[in-house]
Design goal:
about 140 residues; alpha+beta; 3-stranded antiparallel sheet; about 15% helix; about 20% strand
Length: about 140
């Protein structure tokens, strides 16, 4: 029996198993990268989303009045404020932008708040929540 030794080719740059440099790697490691939460501009609005705490529920009432009364809040959006088609999806356009009458999963967005400060937006989104907002089935 004859044994043939075949040499393996040298590694190819950019091939499988290569560790390419990330263009933002050095900035992130040194703490110099500006993440979106680090950016700030004059008169900038911040958003917060009220998400369902229930995995399955029916929306029986939605009172956004208390959220609109929070100082610094510019807008509180519900499914009624979504322009155009209220659905989206990658393969099947069947996912609501904001829940309308039914909650289909825990964390589904219900309300979006725009305010002058991120904490104000979070506080106002919490004000949109009420005991009558959702009832589990």
């Amino acid at each position: 029996m004859t044994t043939v030794h075949v040499g393996l080719p040298a590694a190819v740059d950019g091939g499988v198993g290569a560790s390419p440099q990330r263009p933002d790697g050095r900035l992130k490691v040194t703490g110099e990268f500006a993440f979106s939460s680090d950016l700030w501009a004059d008169d900038m609005l911040w958003g917060a989303t009220l998400r369902s705490p229930h995995p399955r529920a029916r929306i029986t009432a939605l009172d956004i009045g208390p959220a609109l009364r929070v100082p610094g809040v510019y807008a509180v959006l519900t499914h009624e404020d979504v322009p155009g088609a209220p659905l989206y999806g990658l393969e099947h356009v069947d996912q609501p932008v904001l829940a309308a009458r039914e909650i289909r999963y825990q964390g589904e967005p219900i309300v979006i708040v725009a305010a002058d400060h991120p904490e104000t937006a979070r506080r106002a989104a919490a004000w949109s929540r009420s005991p009558t907002t959702c009832s589990t089935r």
